[in-house]
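Continuing the batch. This is chain 6 of the set; chains 1 through 5 are on the previous pages. Same settings as before, nothing changed between runs. Recording input and output for traceability.
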Amino acid sequence: MGVGRNGAEGRSRRGDSPGHRGYPAELASFRGFSAPPLARGRTVVRDWAIYAFEPEMDTRETLQVLFCDLCNTSVPLSDVQSGAAVQHAGKTVGSCCLSVLRTPAANGAASGSPATSQRPGSEGRVLSLGVVLLGAIAVSVLFLDFRLGEAEDRSALRLTRLGENLKAQADVVQDTSVKLDALASRADLDRIEGALTAMQAAGEQDSARVRELGAGLEAANASLRALQTAVQRLEAAKPDYGPAFDDVRRQLQEMSASMSDLLAKPRAAVSPATGGGEAMDAPKAPEADGTGLPAALAHQVRRLADADEGTRFEAVDELLRSKDVRVLPGLLPMAKDPDAFVRRLVVEGLKDFASKESVDTLLVALADPEQIVRSSAWLSLKALTKQDLPFDAAQNREARQKAQAKWQEWWDKNRATFGG
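Output for chain 6:
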């Protein structure tokens, strides 16, 4: 719905909304209401044309609304027709103000004073005077309203120009800030580009060094492969002297045995009195020591005290090969030899000597500082005693001591009957 004057849509010069000063509150209920424009030096016309617009329709309904020029209150047409409101010289006075204007005349008539009695036509003159006074007041109000509107327009224009200036200055400041940011960013980019260039150059130098190192490594690998090939060829061409050494050792043992046999045979003695007559019995060959060992084994026993560990190793090996229990008194102390290889050879060979002393020595060897000696002692114990008690030579000291204690416990119970 739109509200207009004389068939045209009306809009307030000051942008007033429904209910603004000087306009009736009754029109605020109409949807889409807008105030009519004000004219300089002219009286506000209070007749409004209210149009009802329907979608896709061109029909109009016209409704005339009157307002009291004194209190700006809407005046129904029914009040004008009934006399409750008065229209005179284009002015309208509603029933709300008309009753107030008529009050002095009513009071004078009630008092009966001849001086205050109304003469014919006095009501019309008073009404005309009131209308003129109201018109003057209305013109003054309109003038002041117009001047206020102009002041507001000037203020609005100034504010608009000020806003435009501020916006222009803000645009200049923003443009300057963007340019400064662009300058700073360009400097940063130049600095970053320089750093990247330096890094690229350093990377190229590093790459060249890496390539040089790679070439050196390739050459070293080639030399190493050639050396490995040469070593493999030498190993393939190296003769195996092991069988020859075994053969020489066997021959030496045979020769030693032959010499022992020769020494053990009696020699014939010639009597000087007979001059080569009757032969006498030769004396027996002396033993090497008081143990009754052959001379060859006695010689090996003496070699056990040599300062060279290689000599001691060979002597132990010869004595173990003999499997003569008479060599045990010389072999058993060698289980504590300073050289680990000599100790290992002793405990490994004691499995062939079934004696209580051998078991005692092997039980002590379970605590040897070298793992290889401990492992050999355990294997010899198993072979000698036919027992399968657990023992791990690679375990920690506490675990080994527990396993050794179990072996010792078994041996304490069976030592008296062992070998019987």
